[in-house]
Structures are given as structure tokens and as C-alpha cells.
Amino acid sequence: MRRKLAAGNWKMNGSLAAMAEVRALCEAHPAPTVDILLCPPATLIWPMASMRHDHPLAVGAQDCHAEAKGAHTGDISAAMLKEAGATAVIVGHSERRADHGETSQTVAAKGSAAIANGLLAVVCVGETLEEREAGHTLDVVGTQLADSLPEGANADTLVIAYEPVWAIGTGKVPTLEQIGEVHGYLRAQLADHLPGDADGIRLLYGGSVKGSNAAEIFAVADVDGALVGGASLTAEDFSPIVSALQKA
Ligand SMILES: O=C(CO)COP(=O)(O)O
């Protein structure tokens, strides 16, 4: 049985003042029956990890470097993130693939570093609107998945997030059939690449998830939770998504 996961990606948002939102979220869900993960900017990992006390909320990062240390100005290694209190890291988000030219090979190397350092790797895949309209969605996400798989990936170390680029921050969401098609395809691809682990690896949907659409998305087969951007920034918006996942 896959344990469901409500994950929030704060992107380049939030400040120390936003720890009040985290406190409110923990208070709203004192004993969650799903995993909750928040990935704030790196500067907030330690404050967030240290204010949650014994609440099971997990704190993650949004990227890591593939190397352990060295001359990489501005980068942070997986071990450093772990020391700051992170237990997970998002790798291969489409914004990093686009803004920083990250290839799937880079993503695989980052994910491998994350897993080698005991972090959960949340690997993102997703097609652009042009790719979807050209009928290439499954080819694109299948290739991204195959090429982005980290070393050491298994049901305990890897989560896949399907995030259609055109659904991120736009308010546009694929149909439930489209989400189900991609998630079913990713599950089948995982069975080819990681036989024995595919059934246990969690598949998250991401892209304009809100309290108002979460329940119907969580009812789709092979959707094990969500990776939420904008609606993860406040307890008021994220709490209903956590609640919907607990009921799913
Ligand atoms: O990119 C996302 C999460 O990683 C999704 O962002 P939104 O939920 O703001 O569309």
C-alpha cells in the first residue's frame, strides 16, 4: 500500500514570517494519516525543520548539486541540505530544466546524490503544451522518466511527480482521463525500469492543484498525492488539499 503524500513546493516564495503558516498547518493536522512535505527556499529549511518539533511534517529542498563539495558557487550539496534538516529534495522541476538548462542526465545525477545522502528524491517530469498538442505527451514523459531515474531508486527513495508544464501556475488542469493516462503509463514504465519497486513508488500530480479540485484528482487511479505550488504557501489553501488526500 502506497502511503499518500501531500507535497508543497514554495519555489522562490516565503520568509521567516511564513513559519506561522507552517505552525497553523501542523495545528490543523496534528496527527496526519498522509505524509506531508514542504519544500521551502533553502534559507528556510533549517527554520522550518526546527520549528515543527515532533510533528511528522517533512521538510525538503527544491534542488541539489550532484557533487558532494567543491568549486560550485551558489550551489548546495545533498549532504548540506540534510544537515540543514531536509529529508527530501525535488529534482528536475520544469522551471529548473527551463531556467537552468538541466537535462535529464543532470537530474539523474542530482537524484543519485540525493539518495546516496539519504534524501527522498522527488523527480519531476512533464510535457509542454506544444508537445501535448503534437500528441507526444507519453513519449516525452517516458523518455524523461527513463533518463532521469537516479541510482539507488526504489519505493523508499524515489517519488515521481507528473507536472504538465502548461498546467503549472496557469489554473489549467488536464482532464482526469489525461491525468489517469499519464500516471498509468508512468507506472507501467516504472515496472519496466524498476521491476519489484514500481508498485510501491508514489506518483504525484502537480499543476494548479487547489482545494476545489484536489478530491477529484486524488480519485484518479495511480495518483498518490500532489506536488502543489501556489496553494501550498498558506495553511488556509494547503490544509484542504491535505484533508482531501486523507479522505481519498
Ligand atoms: O510547479 C508546481 C509544483 O512544483 C505546481 O505549481 P502550481 O500548483 O502553482 O501550479
UniProtKB/TrEMBL annotation:
Substrate binds at residues 9-11, 169, 208, 229-230. It catalyses: D-glyceraldehyde 3-phosphate = dihydroxyacetone phosphate; L-erythrulose 1-phosphate = D-erythrulose 4-phosphate. Keywords: Cytoplasm, Gluconeogenesis, Glycolysis, Isomerase. The active site is at residues 93, 163. Its main location: cytoplasm. InterPro entries: Aldolase_TIM, TIM_sf, TrioseP_Isoase_bac/euk, Triosephosphate_isomerase, Triosephosphate_isomerase_AS. One of its GO terms (biological process) is glycerol catabolic process. It holds the Pfam family TIM. It is found in: Cytoplasm. Pathway: Carbohydrate metabolism; erythritol degradation; Carbohydrate biosynthesis; gluconeogenesis; Carbohydrate degradation; glycolysis; D-glyceraldehyde 3-phosphate from glycerone phosphate: step 1/1. It is an enzyme of class 5 (isomerase). Its EC number is 5.3.1.1. It comes from the Bacteria. GO terms for cellular component: cytosol. Homodimer. Involved in the gluconeogenesis. Catalyzes stereospecifically the conversion of dihydroxyacetone phosphate (DHAP) to D-glyceraldehyde-3-phosphate (G3P). HAMAP family: TIM_B. Belongs to the triosephosphate isomerase family. This is Triosephosphate isomerase. It comes from Pelagovum pacificum.
